[in-house]
Each structure stands twice: as structure tokens, then as C-alpha cells.
Specification:
This protein is mainly alpha-helical. It has one domain. The chain contains 15 helices and no strands. The protein has helices at 2-14, 16-22, 28-40, 43-46, 58-81, 84-91, 94-105, 113-132, 136-139, 149-165, 177-195, 203-230, 233-239, 242-255, 261-282. Helix 7 packs antiparallel against helix 8. The longest helix is centred in the C-terminal third of the chain and has 28 residues, at 203-230.
Amino acid sequence: MSTFMALGAIALWSALATLGVELRHVPPFLLTGLSLLIGSLIALPLSGFQLSRWRVPLPTLALGIYGLFSYHFLLFLALRYAPPVQANLVNYLWPLLIVVLAPVILPGMTLRLVHVFAALLGFAGAAVVILGGAPASAAGTGIVWSWGYLPALVAAFIWASYSLLTQRVAPFPTAAIGSFALVSGVLSLLCHVWMEPAVTLSARDWTLLALIGLGPMGAAFFMWDKAFKTGDARRIGILSYLTPLLSTTMLMQVSGQVLTWPVAVAAVMIVLAAWIGTRSTAQP
């Protein structure tokens, strides 16, 4: 069940880039805020329409805001002030950090050499697929230093540590993710008012926002939380390397680009890393 939930979240997140391209004219904090508010509504049926199940202790709520709001805030800063392809590559350190930090944050886990190898292999595959799937002009510029890489690196650490720390706080129902998304969405909209120009959204924009909110910025968070509550964090971290592969593949199909050899090589690397990681974590 945990693997299914993790793969479901990964599949939804893989569609985020494709949907985001269609809404690239929408300011990022407005996009994030509205999407999170829509996504928070998923908690209503999960909680049996009992808002009392959304309530969590203040430290737990702070952790949720730390994960959902801080991560997206820093990621959007990185994408704004650093080359997007390279900034996204730095951001995809979070699966590696989940694998490496799991034994540090979660009790009863050990980090074996095979986990390190699988994580590094998966990150190498993620690097290949992101750079190989980028337009030639972006991929050929090379990585040059920009301060925008710093928020991308911190964002990766935040998402990895948030995912693991949700298992260290007092147990809370998955429906409480709705309160995380609700408060984070409001904070994102405040950032929009403070930092971004006002825009008018069309009916098509609202339709796509609903898809993003109910999927990559909604259901994915609830599935991710359920996966971590019932599964092995190291295995989930390694499976997460499928995200850049699926995301780039979807973008290539929508844009009509042909499959390139870097994407094919990356697919082999990522699937191999996931296979090694899942087999190793299945052993006592």
C-alpha cells in the first residue's frame, strides 16, 4: 500500500510541470496559493466533513507550514533567480536527502552502502533526464553560479526533512494535511499581494488551477503522507527519482519532442536504482 501511495504522489507531481507550462502567465505565488487552497478541500471527505480532525498541535502545524509553504517559496525564488533547468536539478537533491537523512532522523533505521549507491545512481539519472530533456539552448549553457542555487538547495533540504519529521511528531490523521495546505495557501496569497502584480484569470485558467489543486498540489500531499506513515522512507526516497523522468517524458510528449538518448539512459539508471533500493530495503 505504501508503495502504491508513493507512486501515486509521484505520478501526480510528474504532471505539475506540464500543467504549469499552460499556466506560466500566472504569477507563481498566486498559482501556489490558489492551488493549495483548492487542494485543502480534499481533506473534507477524508475527515468525514469534521473540521475537528484538521486540528493539530501548534508544533505540528508549524512543521506543515515549514514543508508546504517554505518549500514552494524557496523553489519559486530559485526558479526566478537561477537558470530554471539547473535550479530544478539542485532541487531534485531531495530524494537523495530522504535516503541519507532517514537513519539520522528516524529511529531504528540504518544506512547501508547499497542505499548510498542506489541514491547516487538515482540522482545521476535525475541529472541526466533533466539536462537531457531541456532545450538545447538551456542545457548547453552549462551551470554557472547564481545565488538562486542557494534557495533551491535549502528547498531540497526542507522537503526531505519535512517528509521525515512528520514521522517524529505526535501522530496526526492524514486529513490534517488540509490545515497545512490551507494555512500555506493563505501565506502564498499574501506573498502574491506583496510581491506580484494583480492578474485576471480566465475560465480556462480556473479549470487548470482546479486540476493542479486537486492533483499535484492536493491529493499528492495526502498520498505522500500516507506513504510515509506506512512505508520505508529509504525506499520511498529512491522511488522518488521517477519524478523527473516522468515529468520530462510528459513534457516531451505534449511539446511533440522525440525521445532522446539521455532520457533513455536516465530511464535505465532510475529504474535500476529503484530496483536496487527496493530489494535492499526488503531485506532484514
